[in-house]
Specification:
Blueprint (H helix, E strand, L loop, with lengths): L1 E6 L2 H12 L4 E5 L6 E5 L4 E6 L4 H7 L4 E5 H7 L3 H4 E6 L5 E8 L8 H15 L3 E5 L2 H10 L5 E5 L15 E6 L3 H5 L2 E12 L1 E6 L8 H11 L8
Length: about 230
Amino acid sequence: MLKIGVPSKGRLMEKTFDWFGARGVTMRQTGAEREYSGAVDGVDGVELVLLSAGEIPRELSAGRIHLGVTGSDLVRDKLADWDAQVVELAPLGFGHADLIIAVPAVWIDVDTIDDLDAAAAAFRAAHGFRLRIATKYHRLVREFLTENGVADYQLVDSQGATEGTVKNLTAEAVADITSSGETLRANHLKILSDGLIHQSQATLYAARNADWAQAQGAMQALAARLGIVAPLFA
């Protein structure tokens, strides 16, 4: 069986079902509303696996599913050398969000990454510890700041309500996903003018490490329905 993992609830699941359905592949939940089981109609030999969006990169990396739909931000952040572990088959055109760096709006002299670097150095000199940036995207943020020469900072883990960490005095800046920027503005934060780290959207991936020996036929049939190029793995 060709196993495909999709988000188990919410708009991501609904939009994923819609995207496949528009191409003649029907995905549906089976069993009770809270029971994470499903089925696929339209292509033989395909099994639906309902997972949280955050679990899908891990399952792809381990090869326990052949295909997966999740945000490109999650794949890039959770998987080191992500393109050596998965193949991007198709952006799906929904789930758009930007991973950005934002600072307090009252920091009128901080508008760019270079400004943040200078502010971080001044902050450490004044307070004796490094400027704190709250985020759950540790790999992407660290790589971005390293590439831009920012050194005097520490990442503070935040798995929710990241925008509120500055107000709550647990961080001085944030790196988070935003769609409209309204929550940032409501918390008196501004996005750095060159602080875009990654533009994310829901994407269909294939796992390089999955067992493709018995799944290539179903993959070819599914790819033909979806109008994409099937990956070729040994």
